[in-house]
Design a protein that fits this description.
The protein has helices at residues 11-18, 53-56, 126-138, 156-162, 164-167, 180-187, 206-214, 265-271, 275-278, 295-301, 307-324, 327-349, and strands at 26-33, 38-42, 45-51, 70-77, 80-86, 93-96, 104-108, 113-119, 142-148, 172-174, 195-199, 239-242, 248-251. It has 350 residues and is of the alpha/beta class. The chain has 3 domains: 4-86, OB fold (Dihydrolipoamide Acetyltransferase, E2P), CATH 2.40.50.140; 93-251, Rossmann fold; 265-349, Probable gtpase engc, domain 3 (Ribonucleotide Reductase Protein R1, domain 1), CATH 1.10.40.50. A hairpin with a 5-residue loop joins strand 12 (239-242) and strand 13 (248-251). The longest helix is centred in the C-terminal third of the chain and has 23 residues, at 327-349. The chain is globular, with a radius of gyration of 22 Å.
């Protein structure tokens, strides 16, 4: 028997279930999504479930369960069931669906915290961290940056300087699975009943970090590649596990591309700390590119705002806009963003 409160079940979810026409049936949480079925944690144990016809054919793929979703199911055999409903999602990490411009893909739902995992080798990228932060902040999920492989040789001062604008908004932890004392601070951020999703690109050590946190081999990891010096990617699906006497950890496959599924310009402004400067702009609807009296551009020119961060802001703002607008708006405003790009280049040359 499972205590579902350890997996995040609470009074709010109970009330959401009461609104469903299937409230008399059983509920559980999706632990993993396979190609044709779902692994579900229920009070009775772990089940393998499929979608009911009304779910499979009556809803879009976006509405199908993702890892972390709370679902209602009808058992029909030992350890098997049929999913008939999904409770409304909260604090869901999305990304833009690959190959599309404005379709979202749910990665994990009912998430409290997100561990953005970056490794201190050639894979390290401040820009990638900013991208994750924007999407995480969109859903009011608390971000923590975990820098792995600190046993490797790296310039800590340079890394900290590049992350200065991010470090004021979230904790940054340097870790190595070979130094248990560096894992302890990470463990302190995981509370019982909380759900934590791990995101990052391939080879950064997400699975190794989870194994170190759990102090046992939960997920398999590959040996270091002799040609690249990096760990080979092994996670192939999003999977949830319960950490002993602690929270719920959700591992995700490494991603080469994490397209924004956000349309909130305020989130971008907060991530890049533009708000304080923007308050002094001459125009209330300033785009922070070429308007006279733009305090943000002045801050870039005066070295108060890093040029690299400013250029990243412009790039992500354009991507966010493309995600949220119609094809007609894209055609009508495409020239405007071309102008923004050209102006950003001129700022760089000043």
């Amino acid at each position: 028997m499972n205590n579902l409160s350890l997996y995040g079940w609470n009074d709010t979810l109970f009330l959401l279930k009461q609104a469903s026409q299937y409230k008399h049936l059983f509920h559980g949480r999706v632990a993993a999504v396979n190609k044709t079925n779902y692994e579900v944690i229920a009070q009775s144990g772990r089940l393998l479930c499929e979608l009911a016809g009304n779910m499979l054919y009556g809803r879009s793929s976006f509405e199908h369960p993702c890892t972390g979703d709370w679902i209602i199911f009808q058992p029909f055999e030992d350890n098997k069931g049929i999913i008939v409903d999904v409770l409304p999602r909260k604090h869901t990490l999305y990304r833009r669906k690959s190959g599309t411009q404005n379709e979202r893909q749910a990665i994990a739902s009912h998430v409290d915290k997100a561990f953005i995992v970056q490794s201190l080798d050639a894979n390290f990228s401040v820009r990638r961290t900013e991208r994750f932060m924007v999407q995480i902040a969109e859903e009011n999920i608390h971000p923590i940056l975990i820098l792995t492989k600190s046993d490797l040789e790296f310039n800590r001062q340079k890394v900290e300087e590049s992350l200065k604008h991010i470090g004021r908004q979230m904790p940054i932890l340097f870790t190595s699975v070979f130094s248990p004392e560096t894992i302890l601070p990470v463990r302190k951020f995981i509370k019982q009943g909380e759900s934590i999703v791990f995101v990052g690109s391939s080879g950064v050590g997400k699975s190794s970090l989870i194994n170190a946190l759990c102090e046992l081999t939960v997920f398999s990891t590959s040996e270091i590649s002799k040609s690249s010096g990096k760990g080979r990617h092994t996670s192939t699906r999003r999977e949830m596990i319960l950490m002993k006497d602690s929270g719920i950890l959700i591992d995700t496959p490494g991603v080469r591309e994490f397209g924004l599924a956000s349309d909130n310009s305020d989130t971008l402004s907060d991530i890049f700390e533009l708000a304080d400067f923007a308050e002094s702009c001459r125009f209330e609807n300033c785009t922070h590119v070429n308007e006279p009296g733009c305090a943000v551009v002045d801050a870039v020119n005066n070295g108060l705002l890093a040029l690299a961060a400013y250029n990243s802001y412009l790039k992500l703002r354009k991507e966010s806009w493309y995600f949220s607008t119609s094809e007609h708006e894209k055609r009508n405003r495409g020239k405007s963003f071309a102008k923004i790009s050209e102006e950003a280049k001129r700022i760089k040359k000043r």
